[in-house]
Amino acid sequence: MKKIPALLAFSVTFLMSGATPRLLPMTTFNSQIILKLDSAAAPSLLYFGPVVKGDLNQVLDAAPEGENTPAYPVYGNYPEGESALSVTMPDGNMTLDLIRAGEPESVVDNNGNTLTTIPLADRHYPVSVTLNYLAFPKEDVIETWVDITNNGKKPVILDRFESACLPFRSTDAWLTSLYGTWANEGRVNNEKLTPGMKVIQNKDGVRNSHTSHAEVMLSLDGKPSETSGRVIGAALLYGGNYRLRVVTDDHGRHQLFAGIHPDESSWKLMPGETFSTPAVALTYSNTGMGAVSRNFHRWGRQYHLAHGTEVNPILLNSWEGVYFNIDEPKMAAMMQDIADMGGELFVMDDGWFGQRDDDSSSLGDWEVDTRKLPHGIKGLTDEARKRGVKFGIWVEPEMTNSNARLYKEHPDWVIKAANRDIVEGRGGTQLVLDLANPKVQDFIVNMVDTLLTNNPEIAYVKWDANAPVMQHGSQYLSADRQSEMSIRYHRGLTSVMERIRAKHPDVAIQACASGGGRANYGILDNFDEFWVSDNTDAFQRLGAQWGLSYFFPAVAMGSHISAVPNHTTFRVVPLKFRCDVAMTGRLGMEIQPRDMTQQERDFCKGAIEAYKGFRDVVQLGDLYRLVSPFDNRGVVSLMYVSPAKDKSVFYWFRTNNDYSAPLVTRVPMEGLDPDASYKVTEINAIDLKPLPYEGKVFTGRFLIDNGLEMRPSHDLEWGEKVDYCSRILLLEKQ
Ligand code: GLA
DSSP class of residue 516? Predict the structure, then answer.
């Protein structure tokens, strides 16, 4: 969802540099997009880079002669290239010929963000396109999207309607993208762009970030680096099916296209109707990928996460602790346990409604299962209040099961193709509701609203979605609108979330979708965070959270301490290491505390207390990635620094336990104030003797230049020794 400036401080016609062709800059504190506007022609994108000092015409004069890189290429004359927009006119004409239809305008909102619009129109047909650029100066991000309007009297078919095209040049450009699958989210892939087309896409229909991500980085100066080189970051803000394409020619010219996936998705644009594409957020740095991530994090927290500028609570989620096997005494005991360990919230996961003893039934039948919870949700919120913790609850509102009452009463509410049998998913019975249908939207809003209104102490909702669209077909949409199903599903979902948010603005909502299936800024506007992965193995989480940190801030990443052997990988990782990894994100627990020893609970209590002392730095601070898990150097290291640079948390994880491993035991730090002095305190310390620098003071300059030597294994009694080693150092400015 785009945040179009609501309060317009003033509206002006843009002042452009005088000469013809004219140049139109969109500017943030550190970056600039410059369009070239020739008298009547559609604009070309001339420049995306650091803010140009001095006369803008320098850019024009230095550009390759005769080069024309359309800001928004459409299918029309010279159709051999790739295009972002393709339409079929009522008379069958498949071409567009866009020219400028007026002067660009800009408006500035109360946050100082500037929306620039450039009106274009077809030379002959009544179709117009507005290019939008919304610049966030402080966050160094520019969002861009288009509005396509049918001003005629007959429908126009939109065959392809991508959000943006970004041309860039480099003979050694690299693409960084994320890939994965369920339980293996957030893997990082770096590849050199070679002539041809690279496509990144997702067509799950519901959960769009398991196998691929709609966010990429483009490094223009060779292999991606955290700290050097020109890097463009691009994120498509769309929770549904998407496609990103990078087209590369033999002369180092590239175009990045990003938008809604066009497959089976043509849209019938009615007379007077405007189709607005989702936005693409662009950011730029000439000091590597780290700065691009920090820009995305600042912008994401400020504009695309609910309550993104506030820290999130420390919670215990019941899933891996008891799975479906919930009941009142177990829930109350877990509340007591998380309260005793200093946590702030207990979340009851799946299994509380209908007759849901496994994953094969009851979705849609959202009445409390009184066999398990005789005193209902109220009984649980009472228990939580008594123990001084908040209460949260799991729901999966977009789904039903074929044996559920909801489906029996409303078989026409599920996604299903005409004259085909239903296709069932999880548990052999799961079906996806058709959110294109306003009745389904109302049902979901009403269900969630009733739950929250009747139980005003519910502070947190885990909103899950555990099935893909398994068949193409809306029983609600007319025959000529079937191709709009997926887009209308996601518009329906956005509307549902906005209606719920409007009534319950303070409730925290987690986006979960079979783990990390909904890590996307198109969906997060109405969510406080997302569940990174159903894989809670600390070792694997180092990779998943690292990958996702390219685009998403730690405040958004649910990161839980879980049991060993881990329920997905069966790896046994010491509790300290599990705690330390979980403390790199939004700390929580995903475990049955009753299965822990008192010593283990005490350790977690200490970790939670310590985390409270610096979570603002982790969740709201600046991230510096130091040693990547994907470089296989036997060590992973990262740090967060507060915006004021007065506090920092440094993490070091040993991931290779071979005795001979050449470890990176000395990691130069980043982001600190070189002129400040910082006192070092180890967090979650377990060694018999403290680190040599415990309590000592170092200058920021020294830490940046040299780092501190890590003791690579824990100094423990024989018999207590563990195979993994991890360190957290708190640095406090003196
Ligand atoms: C999904 C989620 C899990 C859990 C289960 C419940 O798999 O990712 O965290 O909530 O559903 O069925």
Answer: B
Contacting residues for 238 by C-beta, under 8 A, at least 6 apart: 163, 208, 214, 259, 260, 278, 490, 520, 522
What residue's CA is closest to ligand 1, atom 2?
514
Characterize the bridge pairing of strands 430-432 and 399-401. Answer: antiparallel
2, 278 contact by CB (below 8 A) = yes
Q: Which residues contact 521 (CB under 8 A, 6 or more apart)?
A: 215, 235, 237, 281, 300, 304, 551
* CB count in 10 Å sphere of residue 472: 16
The predicted model scores a pTM of: 0.97
pLDDT digit string (tens) for 683-702? 999 999 999 999 999 999 99
State yes or no: is 91 an active-site residue: no
**The tokens of 381 are what?**
């919120």
Cα(668)–Cα(481) distance, integer angstroms: 57
Query: For the chain, first and last CA: distance in Å?
Result: 43
List domains and CATH numbers for the chain: 8-303 (2.70.98.60), 623-733 (2.60.40.1180)
Tell which one of 181, 185, 319 to mutate to probe ligand 1, the residue whose CB is within 8 A of the most ligand atoms: 319
| Distance of alpha carbon 294 from alpha carbon 623, whole angstroms | 6
What is the spatial order of strands in the sheet that 242-248 belongs to? 164-169, 253-260, 242-248, 196-202
Query: What is the distance in A from the centroid of ligand 1 to the CA of 464?
Result: 7
Distances (CA, A) of 708 to 646, 696, 711: 18, 11, 9
User: Token pair for residue 672?
Assistant: 């600190």
Q: Which residues of 572-589 are buried (b: 16+ CB within 10 A; e: fewer)?
A: ebbbbbbbbbbbbbbbbb
Q: Take residue 621 and report the two structure tokens written for it.
A: 């601070």
Distance 591 CA to ligand 1 centre (A): 14
* Helices 328-340/376-387 angle, 10° precision: 20
pLDDT digit string, tens, across residues 606-638 = 999 999 999 999 999 999 999 999 999 999 999
Tell me which amino acid residue 644 is.
A
Helix (H, G, I), strand (E, B) or coil at 553: coil
